[in-house]
Amino acid sequence: MGAVSLKGVSKSFGAVDVIRNVSVEIAEGEFCVLIGPSGSGKSTLLRIIAGLENVTDGEVRIGGRDVTELAAKERDIAMVFQSYALYPQMTVRENMSFALRLKHRPKDEIRRKTDEVAQMLGLEALLDRLPKELSGGQRQRVAMGRAIVRDPSVFLFDEPLSNLDAKLRTQVRGEIRDLHRRIGTTSVYVTHDQVEAMTMGQKIVVLRDGRVEQVGTPLDLYDRPDSVFVAGFIGSPAINMLPAMVGPEAKTLHTANSEIVLPLPEGYRLESGRNVLIGIRPEHLETVAAGASGSIVCAVDAVESTGSDTTVICDSPAGKMLVSSKQRSQARAGDRFALRPDSEKLLIFDKASESRIVRM
Fold it and tell me: pTM of the full predicted structure?
């Protein structure tokens, strides 16, 4: 049983509140990602689950058991760190089997479990090497192997891929995802990388200033962000945000001194004159003929291409806008064209509270 439950958890260092009344439920076997900007409290929250930090208030339960006052070694968890934390004088086999040897498990059991996990992670040929003889990706797999052989109730990952290059991050990310499918152990994973969060997490917890901003599946957060903060934090390229006012008869949205007039999508009940923010994902903009109804006239500032994806950075009457596409663009700096957002995909937020306004 590896469900994790946090109820009203707070943590202060002196007068500084780092975690503020956090309540999260992580189901048994779930892969949960904690994400947020630097200083949001995600690593501190993970250390609280691990028992490496004491709570100021609240309760931590693992597998239905109250572990709030228990030491880390009594919580049946295994942690994979950003820095690998391998013993340099020990071989791969010795590093992976260290926890089992501390528990004085039978030698044949230790060898069997170590061999099984080494085969699972493709480490069989490296068992007699020292950490200094391994690449970064191999060291991270050893760190994961050391956690797996313990067969814990919960795996905790503290930004395990941040020391790897882009290609290795993608590779090891896939390995962690596959590993979770195979063994199904509850996993809590901290990252600041939204691509990792979106591609790995079954549940994502977005943190901001020590508080939970939103909890949901990756697509929930992308399609239905609760706030401007979540909308801006999830998604790459970043969402376009345009300040606007609800027009006469509450049928239109006016921005940039009414130079841009967009139809108000059906289902919104907004009063005329209300100040709002319009969220437009870069992929929800299409090029249309100049003067087309509901269009935004833009001038190209720059074009960024990765080969498979193109992002066009534009200047509009409402400020910078990003347009993304899978198609390669022939646009050049200074070119002018008109864009029209998909009105059904618009996200509308109250300007004062920055909360999303829900369609009826």
Answer: 0.90
